[in-house]
Specification:
CATH architecture of the largest domain: 3-Layer(aba) Sandwich
Largest sheet: 10 strands, mixed
Strand content: 5-15%
Structural class: alpha/beta
Shape: extended
CATH topology of the largest domain: Rossmann fold
Number of helices: 25
Number of domains: 4
Radius of gyration: 42 Å
CATH superfamily of the largest domain: P-loop containing nucleotide triphosphate hydrolases
CATH class of the largest domain: Alpha Beta
Distance between the termini: 64 Å
Length: about 700
Amino acid sequence: MSSTATATAKKQHVGSGPVLDWAAGHGPVTGALSATTGAFAVATTGAATAMPPGWALAVGAAGALGHTVAGLRVRNAGRTLATRAASWLVGAGWTTWAMTTGPLTWAALGSLAAIGVGMGAAARSVALYEEAREEEAIAAEQRAVALELSAERRAIAAEWVERIQRICSISVRVLAVEMWSTGAGYSLDLEPQGGITYDRIAQYSVALSADAKLPHGCTAAATAGIHQGRTILDVTTVNVLKEDCPYPSEYGPLSVLTGLPWGVRTNGETVSAYLREQCALVVGPTGSGKTNMVHTILAGFARAEDVLTWVIDLNAGSAGLPWVLPALNGELQQANGKPVRPGIDWLASSHEEALLMLDAALAVGLHRKKAYQDLLSKANTDLLPISAKVPQILLVIDEGAEILVSTDRQMKELAKKILEVIRMLRAMGIRTVLTALGATGSVLGNLMIRREGKVRVALTGGETEGMDLGKMFPGRRGLRVEQAPYKGAGFMGTPESPAALFKAWRILPNQIREITAATSDRHPRLDDISARAAGPAYARRWDTDRTAWMRDLTLDHGTDADPSESAGGGLNLSALRGPQAGQGSEEDAMLRRFREEIDAQFATAADPHTAGEQAPPATGEGLDLSALRRAREQGPVWLPKVLEAIKATGAEGMKPSAVAELAGKDRKTVRAALQAAVERGQLVYRDNGPHSVYVHPNHA
C-alpha cells in the first residue's frame, strides 16, 4: 500500500467512531457508570471464585477513608466528603451482598442500577455545590481587596476635597479615584460645584503640589474632563523624570498616521506626535537634551514605513551624520548581506544644499497638487492619502526657528522658503520639525509657527532664561520650569494631549546604528511623480562631490598638516601639497594668472619641464614654481604606489576610504588626486553612490 493510501486509511479509521479521552477525569455519569460496572465485575468474579465477601467490604471501607483524607487536604465541603464516603460504602455493601446471594438476579441488577443513578445525582449535586462554594470564596476575597482599596480611595478623595476647598476656595465632588498601574500616582475625577472649570484649579497646581508635599518633579495637574463640568486631576507621587528613560529596544514598524512616540508621561504612558497635518516645534537650551531629542525624533521617523526624512543642520550637519556616515562608509550590513541605506533620506549642512532641499520640497508639493487629483478624487478627500507608495516628507530643521528670525540675508532666503513649505504643503504630506534654543517672543512671534506648529516640546533642563512656558503653551496654567530640572525632562503638548510633564527617551549611538540597520528595508522610496518633480538635485544627493564634506577631516588651522606645507609666513604654494578637491579649469586659469603675476614681480627659476628652453643657472634667489606643473602632470609622490594597489584589486576596484588609509593622507587630498588621475586616464571612476570605487583601466 502506498503512503498516500495508508494516510487515507488512517484518516478514515480515526473518523469512524467517537473519540475518547482516556486521560480525562470522571464526571457524574461516567463516575457512576464506572463504579457500578466495577462493583458488578467484582461481585461476579467473587461469586464464581468463592471469594470471601468480607474482602469487598474491607476495600470499600479503605476507599471511603482514603477519599475522606484526600478531601480534607483540599478542604472540600462536609457534604462532599460524606457523599464520596457513602458511595464507597454503599458500593462495597452491594458487592458483599451480591457475592453472597448471586449478582445475576433481577433484584441484584435492579438495586445496582438504582445505586448508580443515586451516585450520579449525588455527584452532580456536590459538584455544583463545590463550584458555588469556590466562586463565593473568590468573590469574598475580591470584596476584601475592593474594600481595602475603597478605603484607601475614600481617604484620598476626602483629603483632596478638603485641600482644594482650603487652597482654591472651590467645592468639588470626587466621582472616582484611579490608581495608575505604574504605581507612580493616581487620577481623580472631580466635579467642581458652581460652574467652575478645570482651568481655575489648574492655576493652583504649584500650591496644591506643595500642600500635598509631593516630591520634586511631581505635580498635581488639572486637565479637562469628559465634559466642561468635569475635571481630571493627575497627581504624581513618584519622580520618574530624574532617571534616564532608555529608548525601547524593540524597533517595530510605525506610521505617521497612527502616531510617532517621543517619550513618556509621568504616569508611564507613551506620548506620541501626530504629524500628518501638524508641524512641530522643539525648544531647549544648551544642556537640556535637545540633541538627544532630535535623535529620538529621527529614530521614530526611521521606523515609520510611510515617512521620508530630510534634515537641514547648518551646524556641520551634526544632527544627521550619525544616521548617514555608518551606511555610506559601509560599516553596517543587513542580515541578508545587502548594503544598509542611510537612516535619513537627505542631509544638508550648507546654505546651498539647504536651498536645493527646500526648492525640491516645494517642487514636490506643488506637483503633487496637480498630479494626484485622480487619487484625491478616488479617496474622496482633500488630504493626499499617505502610504509607503506615496510617503510623507518630514523636514527636520535644527535651530530652524532661529533661521526664521535671523536678519542675515542668506538666512532670510532660507526662512522664506521654510515658511512657504509650512504654509502651502500641508495637504500634500510635507511637514516640518523646527528646533530652537529657547521659547522666546522672537521665536514664537511668527504667526505661522504658532498656527501650524501645534506639536510643541519644551525641554527645560532647569533653565529659566528664555523659557516662557506661557507663550509656548498658551492657555495652559500651572507649568513651571522648576518642575522639570533634569536633562531630557520638560513639557510636551499636542492637539490630542494637553501640555504636561514628560521625559524624552535616551537614545545611545549604538542604538542609532542598530535602528539604521534594522529599518533599512523599511524606508520607502520617493514616488516617481515626486522624484521627477524633485529633479537632479534630489537624484544626485548622495553623489561623491555632494557628500565629500561628510568625510572631510582636514583641519583648516591645525598641526595635522602636510609636511610640505609652508610653516611660516609668505606665499602658500598649495600645489606642493597635491591637487585639491574641486580643482578644474577655473583653478588652472587662476594658477596661470598667479604664475604670470609672480614672474612679472620676482626673478623666478625656469621650469625644467618646458621644452626647447635652456634652464638658466640657479642664482639662489627667486621662487621655483615648477612644482605647480609637476603636481598637475604627475600627481603626488604616493600616487604610483596607489595605482599599483588599485591595479592589483582587479575589477573590484578600491574605495576612496581604502586609498586614504593606504596613502596615509586625508580623504579630501586623496579624492582630488584620484580625480586628477581619472582626467589623465590613469584610473576609471565607477560611480555607485556610497559604494563607488576607482578601477585601473586594464580592468575597467
